[in-house]
Structures are given as C-alpha cells and as structure tokens.
Amino acid sequence: GNSVTQMEGPVTLSEEAFLTINCTYTATGYPSLFWYVQYPGEGLQLLLKATKADDKGSNKGFEATYRKETTSFHLEKGSVQVSDSAVYFCALTLPNTGFQKLVFGTGTRLLVSP
Amino acid sequence: GAGVSQSPSNKVTEKGKDVELRCDPISGHTALYWYRQSLGQGLEFLIYFQGNSAPDKSGLPSDRFSAERTGGSVSTLTIQRTQQEDSAVYLCASSSSGGLRTEAFFGQGTRLTVV
Questions:
Q1: Per residue in A31-59, pLDDT tens?
Q2: Is there a contact between B100 and A100 if contact means CB atoms under 8 Å apart?
Q3: What sections of chain A are H helices per DSSP?
C-alpha cells in the first residue's frame, strides 16, 4: 500500500542548529510529496511540496528534494529558530486518486531552545 | 470566512451517544475533506466532497460514520453510537478545487473524547 515513514521525535535542537527530518515513502505510481507544519494551537499548514523527481520544494528557509531513487523527501533547514518549534508532517498524494487524498506520516515534533 | 472554521473545538461525549461535528470551509472552495488524527493511527483520510459530485467515502472506518455537505458549503460529520476508539482530533480542510496542484487549507480541528 501507500505509506509515509518519518523519524520519531521529538527532535530537540538549539537555535541556529541544522535541522534534518527524515521522510521516506512507499507508493504505487508517482506521488506528489508535501511537508505540512502544525504550530501550537493552529491548524495544519502547507510548508512546501514537490510534484516530480528531483524537484526541490522550499519555503521559509526549509527545503526538501524529491529523491525517487531513495524514495525520500527529507526536510532540512540550515539554521532553526525558536519559532520553528512545531510538529512536521510528511505526506503524499497519488495522481490516480483524482483528487488530493493525502497520506500522512505520523509527524515529528521539533523543539528549538534559545 | 478567512479560514476553515470547525466547531466545537472540543467535545466530550459518553460512549454510545451520537455526535455531530461541523466544518465551515473557505468561501468559494468547492472541495472539502475530513481527516482524523489519532494517537494510534496518525492522520487518516475519511471523506472527500467536490461540488455536487457523489462524495468519496473510502476512508470512513465504519458505517457509524457519515457526512453530508449542504448547499456545497457547510459540512457535518456524524458519528453514531460513539466508541472510545473514536476519540481523536477531526480535521476539516478545503481547497479551491480537488485538483492535485491546489493547496488544501486545514481548520484547527475538533478534539473528540469519548468517555
């Protein structure tokens, strides 16, 4: 079946540290890949996306590259801030579903301390 | 409205009771989704509405779950004879169309606790 696997959290970092949150997927076909973020007390927000192999999604200093050969979409940021503390969800959709039916990972909580 | 609005934000109910959860999508959005976020299962797709088309109900976990969307706008998710395993955060999202390239905007969710 189609699934997304994320590293378990929490990930605890100091401000200005480098962030990597691993995400790998299993899918039949060619999925589109997403990272969503959920800040405390808020709804899920789209952070970035990539729709085909080798595409790089980027937003707010975060980046992720769609790697078909390793079926991965790891999230990275060069220098995290306290305000980046949130839960991050990797997700995919498949074109043959005909609509944006998201399959999510379990989420990774990021805690950034000053 | 400015965003997707869900009500109530929290609901505590007794096992066996029926509950209704409401979602008010962004004005003009034709696509509406319900997801469930639970400790054991993560975020799961439940149901999808697009315009006047028949909904995709493939994610509903049992026949105790149903949803409707009146007038192409507000949606209600109904859970009959609630069970403890129904405890979760129920998220609603809407998008301008169901297309794969359109962004889905999520509400803050309704936290359901079945006691």
A1: 999 999 999 888 899 999 998 999 999 99
A2: yes
A3: none
